[in-house]
Each structure stands twice: as structure tokens, then as C-alpha cells.
Specification:
With 141 residues, the protein is mostly helical. The protein contains 4 helices and no strands. The termini are far apart.
């Protein structure tokens, strides 16, 4: 054994090639903090994501249908406002679906408590706003 080699280091490994203990302990702590989640919870998270995506697709289809099929209202621009509000809400829901899916997956792997999603109040307020626009357009046609 060479005098420059340490007894518990593999032959040919220099001290510069050895990893930093602080980095190793951080990586081990991260691995220990993230646990393998039961596949049923992962699949449930994916089903929830797909439900949000179906909602976004429905809003998108509704926006396109309003723009294409609905007769123009007495007030100019109301049809366009309805179509754009549905399409904008579809964009928000689809982005929110991905961020929610990602956040829930990370939270489950860390074993932390799940937080409430902001998607429910956003979707509720958006649908309420679209409904008010529709009611106004129908009442004042």
C-alpha cells in the first residue's frame, strides 16, 4: 500500500475524487425524506389530473361552440366575451391541473400533509362569472 493512500479508500481513488460529506448527507436526507408512494395514490392523483383536464377541454369546447354556433346578441361583443372567458378559464384550469398534480405527487413522496388547492375557488368563480354573462346576455337580448 502506498503511503499516500488511506486504508479505507479504494485503490486509485484520490482525495479530490472523494465526494463531499455534506453533499452526501444532503442527498441521503433527500432520499430518506422521499418515500415510495403506494401506486393506488399515484393513480388517484392521475385520475384527478385527468378530471381537471376534462373540465378544461369542456370549457374550451364551450368557448369554441359559443363563438361558432351562437347567434350574435343585441349587445355587440357579448358573444366574443363569453367565448373568450370560457377559453381563458380552460387555460387557467389546464395549467392549474398540472401544477396541482405535480405538487400532490411531491407532497405524497415527502410524506407531508396535502394542502388545499386554489383550483376549486378559481373554477367556481370563473363558472359563476360566465354564468352571469350568459344570464345578462339572455335577459337583455
Amino acid at each position: 500500500m502506498d503511503s499516500s493512500e488511506e486504508p479505507n479508500r479504494p485503490a486509485g481513488e484520490s482525495s479530490s475524487e472523494r465526494s463531499d460529506p455534506a453533499v452526501d448527507s444532503l442527498a441521503q436526507a433527500k432520499q430518506a425524506a422521499e418515500v415510495e408512494v403506494d401506486y393506488r395514490f399515484t393513480l388517484a392523483n392521475e385520475r384527478t389530473f385527468l378530471a381537471w383536464i376534462r373540465t378544461a377541454l369542456g370549457l374550451l369546447a364551450g368557448g369554441v361552440a359559443v363563438h361558432t354556433l351562437v347567434q350574435p346578441f343585441h349587445h355587440s361583443g357579448i358573444r366574443r366575451a363569453l367565448a373568450l372567458s370560457c377559453i381563458a378559464l380552460a387555460i387557467v384550469v389546464s395549467i392549474g391541473a398540472y401544477t396541482h398534480w405535480r405538487r400532490v405527487g411531491i407532497t405524497m413522496r415527502r410524506g407531508e400533509r396535502l394542502k388545499d388547492t386554489p383550483m376549486v375557488p378559481i373554477l367556481s368563480a370563473g363558472i359563476a362569472a360566465v354564468s352571469v354573462l350568459v344570464a345578462w346576455a339572455v335577459l337583455f337580448r
